[in-house]
Write a structure and sequence with these properties.
With about 230 residues, the chain is of the alpha/beta class. The chain has one domain: Ribonuclease Z/Hydroxyacylglutathione hydrolase-like (Metallo-beta-lactamase, Chain A, 4-Layer Sandwich), CATH 3.60.15.10. It contains 6 helices and 16 strands. The strands form 3 sheets. It has a 7-stranded mixed β-sheet with strand order 6-5-4-3-2-1-16, with helices on one face. Strands 7-8-11-12-13-14-15 form a 7-stranded mixed β-sheet. A two-stranded antiparallel ribbon has the order 9-10. Strand 5, helix 3 and strand 6 form a beta-alpha-beta unit. Helix 4 packs parallel to helix 5 and helix 5 packs across helix 6. The radius of gyration is 16 Å and the shape is globular. The structure holds nickel (II) ion and manganese (II) ion. The site of nickel (II) ion has 6 residues, from loops. The site of manganese (II) ion has 6 residues, from helix 1.
Length: about 230
């Protein structure tokens, strides 16, 4: 059995490795597409791309046990430690951190990041993405919230992710057209669209995304996961 990727709507994913390690990325489980998903208090790793509420999500509830290690940029780490979470590792863009047999590389993202604390906006560091390399060598790229940027070609060149999780909703992130060009830059053969349909302004659709990819003449497999659905890696 291989690794399994499960989509929970918006940008929330769980990766279950072939050895049973549970890795969550951007676990916003209160999102409009993930109704009734139980909070997983048994996660091994929890990766946060940036501090916006739709990505930090249910992190604080999920990571109350020291067996769940949160990995984020330094500023979010400091914030989460101040909230009493016991096991939070801070890193920064460009670096790789190896933990529990998983290599976590923090990539750039062109976006903003802040934490809403009542009426205050707390600085959340830079927005980021992750390349996650699993035991055995398979890797995935979760782009976080981002515009297209030319450095995606370097991400493809250096890490050759087996699958890319790309936002397509537009308005706050790439739309289908930009995301199709992102596939070209990454050279990735398999992509899972995310961050669409969950808010009314996120109007990009998988159909438009596929059309744009075809328009570029790329051979990319677009795997559209419904919330709750899984695929193998
Ligand atoms: Ni955001
Ligand atoms: Mn977002």
């Amino acid at each position: 059995m291989g690794h399994e990727i499960t989509f929970y709507g918006h940008s929330a994913f769980k990766i279950t490795t072939d050895r049973g390690l549970k890795i969550w990325i951007d676990p916003w489980l209160d999102n409009p597409q993930a109704s009734g998903v139980e909070i997983d208090r048994d996660a091994d790793l929890l990766l946060v791309t940036h501090a916006h509420g739709d990505h930090l999500g249910n992190c604080i509830e999920m990571a109350t046990s020291a067996s769940c290690e949160v990995v984020s940029i330094h500023e979010i780490q400091q914030y989460l430690l101040s909230k009493g979470l016991p096991n939070v590792t801070g890193m920064n863009i460009g670096g790789t951190y190896v933990t529990k047999g998983v290599a976590v590389t923090m990539t750039p993202a062109v976006h903003s990041s802040s934490i809403q604390e009542g009426h205050e906006l707390v600085y959340g560091g830079e927005a980021a993405g992750f390349v996650v390399t699993l035991p055995g060598g398979k890797s995935l790229y979760h782009a976080g919230d981002t515009a297209i940027f030319s450095g995606m070609s370097l991400i493809g060149e250096i890490y050759s992710p087996d699958v890319a999780l790309l936002p397509i909703g537009s308005h706050y992130v790439m739309g289908p057209r930009e995301a199709a060009h992102a596939c070209r830059l990454l050279g990735c053969k398999r992509v899972i669209p995310m961050h669409y349909g969950s808010f009314p302004v996120l109007t990009g659709t998988p159909e438009d995304f596929v059309r744009e990819i075809e328009g570029l003449g790329l051979s990319v497999e677009v795997e559209v996961l419904q919330p709750g659905e899984s695929c193998s890696l």
